[in-house]
Design a protein that fits this description.
The complex is a heterodimer of chains A (113) and B (111). With 113 residues, chain A is mostly beta strands. Chain A has no helices and 11 strands. In chain A, strands 2, 4, 5, 6, 9, 10 and 11 form a 7-stranded mixed sheet that branches. Chain A has a 4-stranded antiparallel sheet with strand order 1-3-8-7, with no helix packed on it. Chain A starts with a strand and ends with a strand. Helices cover 0% and strands 54% of the residues of chain B. The chains are: A mainly beta (113), B mainly beta (111).
C-alpha cells in the first residue's frame, strides 16, 4: 500500500533556486492538496485540486505554483526559493465529496539558506 | 479566512491520566476530524465526526461533534507513552471544500 508518496524527504536550497516537490497517490483520489507546517502555526493550505486540470489557491499560495495534469500526481513548484519557505511540506489526498478524510504523505523537509 | 482555536497548545501528563483537548470555531462545520502526528511523519486520522451531537470512540479515544457545529473535543483515557505526539483538529464545511486545521496540541506523557 503506497498511499501518498512524497519525494524528496529532505532538500536544501539556496535563495533564488527553483525546485519541484513531487507528490503521487495510487488511491484514485480526485482531491489533492499541499500544506506547509511551521512551528506553532499548524498546517496551512497552499494549493489544492479537486480533479485533473483544476487547481485553486489556499491560505498561503504566494511563491508556489501547482498543476494537475493527471489524477495521480500533484507537484508543487518553488520558482525562486526564499528563506521564508523553509518548512515541512505535506501532500494529502482524498475522494472528492462525501465522507472521505485526507490521507497524508510523510512530508518533505525543505531548508532554504 | 476560517480559523480554529485549539487548546491547550501543549500538555504534560503522567502515564495513566486522562486527557482532554478541544477545538472551537467562529463558523460552523459539517465535518470534524481529529488527526495525530508522530515525529517525522504525516498526520494520521484518528476519528471522523459527521453529525452534530455525534459521540464516537476509537479504543481509548472518544470525540464529540458539538451541537452548535462550532466545536469538538477529543478525550484520551488512561494515557500511555505511545500517545505522545501532536493532535490536530480539522473542520470541513462540505466534501469539496478544504479542511481547516487547528494549530495542534502537543502531548507529552511522563512514564
Amino acid at each position: 500500500n503506497a498511499g501518498v508518496t512524497q519525494t524528496p524527504k529532505f532538500q536544501v536550497l539556496k535563495t533564488g533556486q527553483s525546485m519541484t516537490l513531487q507528490c503521487a497517490q495510487d488511491m484514485n483520489h480526485e482531491y489533492m492538496s499541499w500544506y506547509r507546517q511551521d512551528p506553532g502555526m499548524g498546517l496551512r493550505l497552499i494549493h489544492y485540486s479537486v480533479g485533473a486540470g483544476i487547481t485553486d489557491q489556499g491560505e498561503v499560495p504566494n511563491g508556489y505554483n501547482v498543476s494537475r495534469s493527471t489524477t495521480e500526481d500533484f507537484p508543487l513548484r518553488l520558482l525562486s526559493a526564499a528563506p521564508s519557505q523553509t518548512s515541512v511540506y505535506f501532500c494529502a489526498s482524498s475522494m472528492a465529496g462525501g465522507r472521505s478524510p485526507l490521507h497524508f504523505g510523510n512530508g518533505t523537509r525543505l531548508t532554504v539558506t | 479566512g476560517q480559523q480554529l482555536n485549539q487548546s491547550p497548545q501543549s500538555m504534560f501528563i503522567q502515564e495513566g491520566e486522562d486527557v482532554s483537548m478541544n477545538c472551537t470555531s467562529s463558523s460552523i462545520f459539517n465535518t470534524w476530524l481529529w488527526y495525530k502526528q508522530d515525529p517525522g511523519e504525516g498526520p494520521v486520522l484518528l476519528i471522523a465526526l459527521y453529525k452534530a451531537g455525534e459521540l464516537t470512540s476509537n479504543g481509548r479515544l472518544t470525540a464529540q461533534f458539538g451541537i452548535t457545529r462550532k466545536d469538538s473535543f477529543l478525550n484520551i483515557s488512561a494515557s500511555i507513552p505511545s500517545d505522545v505526539g501532536i493532535y490536530f483538529c480539522a473542520g470541513q464545511l462540505t466534501g469539496n471544500t478544504p479542511l481547516v486545521f487547528g494549530k495542534g496540541t502537543r502531548l507529552s506523557v511522563i512514564a
